[in-house]
Amino acid sequence: MTTTDTSYAVAAYDLVKTYPKNVTALDGLSVTVDAGQIFGLLGPNGAGKTTAVKILTTLARPDSGTAVVAGHDVARHPRRVRTAIGAVAQRSSADPVATGRDNLALQGRLYGMGGTALRRRIDELLERFALVDAADRRVRTYSGGMQRRLEVALGLVHRPAVLFLDEPTTGLDPEARAAMWDEITQLAGDEGLTIVLTTHYLEEADRLADRLAIIDAGRVMATGTPAELKGELYGDAVHIDLRTALDEAAATAARTALAAVPGVREVALDGSRLSARADDGAAVVPGALAALEGAGVAVAAVTAARPSLDDVYLRYAGRRFADADADLVTAGGES
Amino acid sequence: MSALLTDTWWMTARRLKIGMAQPVFLVISLIQPVIWLFLFGNLFERVVDLGGFGTDSYLDYIVPGVVVMNALAWNMWAGMGTLEETSQGTLNRFLVTPVRRSAIMNANVFEQAVGTIVQSVVIVLLAWWAGATFDSGLPGVALLILLAVLLGVIFGSMSNAIGMLVRQRESIIGINTLLLLPLTFLSTVFMVRDLMPDWMATVSRFNPLDWAVVASRSALSATPDWGLVLSRGGWLLALAVLMVALSIRTFRSYQKAV
Ligand SMILES: Nc1ncnc2c1ncn2[C@@H]1O[C@H](COP(=O)(O)OP(=O)(O)OP(=O)(O)O)[C@@H](O)[C@H]1O
Ligand SMILES: [Mg+2]
């Protein structure tokens, strides 16, 4: 598996990376990405997403394992990889005391660009990322959203074949996030770019990624298209919130009553929340409500939903995504 | 090769722009040499009476030392710039472009050298205004500044390497505090070797700061000892090349730790 396989835009085999104090950031991570795809690396804080991106973009060196990006081995030909890729880091990387335009110009120079070609490319990117008015201001004065857009522009100056985006929308308001999503979709669509993006937003992965890998603790838990991953969980999720937590006898009665409803499977009770699966969630709701009423259990709310990536995550990582990612808001937000 | 040159050019231009945006550092760091030159110079004016200084003006004696010591003190802070580049993410961004690693370090070296030259010229002008004499004239002064730059490259590169490895301001501050005064006093910056205790005289011969002082003092005298100037200058050059090479090597360690 360690031979140079150029049929993929990105191929990583068994990447292992440990940091001092025995922190295993990557624990045998393998992924392949087809050219022209948007590939999502989805995982909670500390899953190893950034570490994977650092290795694939030649910034960091793995302890073991190999990776081929844009046809070149990252360890043996890092410069060839660097020429072919663009990388947008999770944290801001623009020079804060230089202007947006100067940042873009230097970036182009480092890829050997210059003259009118570079000037035109910069104008084009400023336009595209709505930075024309701010172009000649110091980056330090930019808003979080503007900085994020500049970062993406920096990664695109030299028209890379593969673009790495490490949490491109973290810290953006909903409007800016939607705009960034459109931009990313367009890049992959019109320009045939391969995009590897990391995210800990399930919604983002679901919406943008053609394929994705769910990673946790430095390992890939599952790969596939969002639809495939969700399809593995057959049926819809039905959640029933109860008015009060139940004592043991009442809990057994409630579970038995719900399980007896035709079409309902896998009943579970967690505090005051009953969960079940059903082939057709909406269809079983009336029956479920009647059964619970018959058992003397008071219901506060019912939801029936198509399986989400959250459910997929729960299945593979053994815990809810939101629990694994409890400090989502504090980490990686705008600082 | 030409790619390395253009890389170095663009990276240096960038560093200089950043440096010029904050000239205040250049000025603040001149306060110390001025104190040495004028307060220390006046306070110890009479030590030349002890003999062996080769001049009857203590000011003349300490000018090369103060220039060289200032170069040391200034360049020792180079790592702070590197540290800032790592913490603000710019270094990581450059490292995933095809830019040569050596160009990144060269840019730091050149930026520091420009600072060293500007400061050295100012110190020389101040000393001249205060009545110091430069027997061998401009060529001697040029050599003094060149030697100061070489010494600066040695300690600047060391500081850059430390900045990249330790990634903590405190470490740089600690190392600088630890090194600056011993290096200065274990040298002939303020005192001739014959008047030092034996062990100090011995240790001082291995001090790169002393090489720069001895060589530049000789270069500034009416009858330079070219053998001395060239040998000490050569040692400094060799050490400078070595330290730059080492600082470029630290990118490898950085790649493992990042
Ligand atoms: N430079 C480093 N030194 C030491 N430990 C590190 C370093 N970088 C990452 N780690 C550790 O490696 C693990 C994986 O971190 P990584 O940044 O790859 O996670 P992530 O999936 O990107 O998380 P997030 O969503 O918070 O960005 C974490 O436990 C982290 O603390
Ligand atoms: Mg991350």
Count of helices of chain A?
12
The CATH C-level name of the largest domain in chain A is Alpha Beta
| Helical/strand content category of chain A | alpha/beta
Listed once per kind, the bound small molecules are: adenosine-5'-triphosphate, magnesium ion
The name CATH uses for the topology of the largest domain in chain A is: Rossmann fold
The total count of strands of chain A amounts to 14
Main sheet specs of chain B: none
Detail the poorly predicted runs of chain B: none
CATH architecture of the largest domain in chain A: 3-Layer(aba) Sandwich
* String of helices and strands of chain B: HHHHHHHHHHHH
Rg for CA atoms of chain B: 19 Å
Spatial arrangement of strands, main beta sheet of chain A: 6-7-8-3-9-10
Give the CA-based shape of chain B: elongated
User: Percent range for helical residues of chain B?
Assistant: over 70%
CATH superfamily placement of the largest domain in chain A: P-loop containing nucleotide triphosphate hydrolases
Note the beta-strand portion of chain B: under 5%
What does the oligomeric state look like here? Answer: heterodimer
What's the end-to-end separation of chain A, in Å?
A: 41 Å
Number of DSSP E strands of chain B? 0
Largest sheet of chain A: 6 strands, mixed
Q: What does this entry look like structurally?
A:
- The complex is a heterodimer of chains A (335) and B (258).
- Chain A has helices at 49-56, 78-84, 100-110, 115-128, 144-156, 174-191, 202-208, 226-231, 248-259, 281-294, 309-317, 321-324; strands spanning 10-19, 23-33, 38-42, 64-69, 72-73, 85-88, 162-166, 194-199, 211-216, 219-224, 236-242, 264-270, 273-278, 299-305.
- Chain A has 335 residues and is α/β, with parallel strands linked by helices.
- In chain A, the strands form 3 sheets. A 6-stranded mixed beta sheet of chain A has the order 6-7-8-3-9-10, with helices on both faces. Chain A has a 4-stranded antiparallel beta sheet with strand order 2-1-4-5, with helices on one face. In chain A, strands 12-13-11-14 form a 4-stranded antiparallel beta sheet, covered by helices on one side.
- In chain A, 45% of the residues are buried.
- Chain B has one domain (2-257).
- In chain B, 78% of the residues lie in helices and 0% in strands.
- Chain B contains 12 helices and no strands.
- In chain B, helix 7 packs across helix 12 (226-257), helix 8 (137-166) packs parallel to helix 12 (226-257) and helix 11 packs antiparallel against helix 12 (226-257).
- Chain B is elongated.
- Chains A and B meet through helix 2 and helix 3 of A and helix 1, helix 6 and helix 12 of B.
- The structure holds adenosine-5'-triphosphate (ATP) and magnesium ion (MG).
- Magnesium ion binds next to helix 1 of chain A.
